[in-house]
Input
Amino acid sequence: MSNNNSENLDELFAKEPESIDLNAVSEDDAGQFPTDEATSVFKFDEQINISKYDPNKHSSEAQNNAKPKKKKRRKRNYTAYGGIVIATLVLCVSILLSLFIIVVGRDVLGIESSGVEFTIYVPSGSTTDDIAQQLYDEGVIQYKDVFKLISKVKGADGSMYPGDLNVAYNMSYSDIIDSLMESREAKQTATVTFPEGITLLSAGKLLEENNICTADEFIYTFNSTVFGFEFEKYVSSSSLKLYKYEGYLFPDTYEFYWTVTPESFLQKMKREYRIYWEGKREQQAKRWGLTPVEVATLASIVEEETNKRDEMGKVAGLYMNRLRKGMPLQADPTVKFAHGDFSLKRILNVHLTIESPYNTYRVTGLPPGPIRIPSKQAINAVLTHTPNGYFYMCAKEDFSGYHNFAVTLAEHQRNAIRYQQALNRLGIR
Output
């Protein structure tokens, strides 16, 4: 509808009702109206309730309808892209969460873990946090917080008993907690035996296996702690020495409280070493022009050269002869120590080239310190050896463990050839 028609209607409805008589229009007069206007008026009357008509409203609508409509920009459909992104994120999170649950669950349940059993000591007064940390350090559990959560759910907090606990890597967290809640007798002391000939590194590993301390902690503390004992002033402080106090751990059986500190334990061991050397043995060492440290160093070499106690004194005398002459000791055990491999069965020329203060083929005199903890027998063999005229020795070709001793180089070379031929026949390289 045009704007003009709207204006005519407004004028029409503005008139008083009595001035308009729609019924007064006769059929004859009807023909006088233009056909299009008459049709428009009477159709409008049929479609709209005139009494409820709001001219302002409809006028406004008409004007609005007449306004040219702006062309709407076509919006991109971001909804589909957003849905795909969200679905992908949910899937990734679900996968990661599932993997996490599987990994954690395998450890919590002990699935496919080693069944190796060992014993740990739970000190008195240990909290759940302390125990979780101890189990974590031992590699028994990987998730301390999960362990503490399960402990709380099972009501184990404050109900775990101290003492020795037998565990295995394939135990579930729940089984470990159940074991901790079982009453058991707590051991107050631990016993560790250091056998003769043990190295400082092996001693550290032995303490670690018995849950006393870690091997690294033991070696560091042992080599860095000075207690003021007489023998300590003879210990070489050379940076060339691998372990400062290698060889000064006295072979014996030690019993001590679980709560002992590494420093206290080491003080006890060094005290035993001092007691051993005080008096008669120290005087015997001076007789040979040696300090207790030098005796221990030579004894460690002798013991590695031969396991025959009745031969140790003869070997010690041979090396004493070389020391007096200023000859290199040329002791194979020191080369093995320099390579860090005592399992070497045959020392070759390539082994002799190693640059080390322990390589007595290249360095004259004793090495910086013992190559292992000497036994009482080896120390006594050095202190009480009978002087002899030997300068050379070679293992016997019968592999009995004994040696052929020689005064001259020519004699020694003949002995060496026979031994080398025996090695070759057996294919020992």
About this structure: Residues 3-65 form one domain. The longest strand covers residues 117-122.
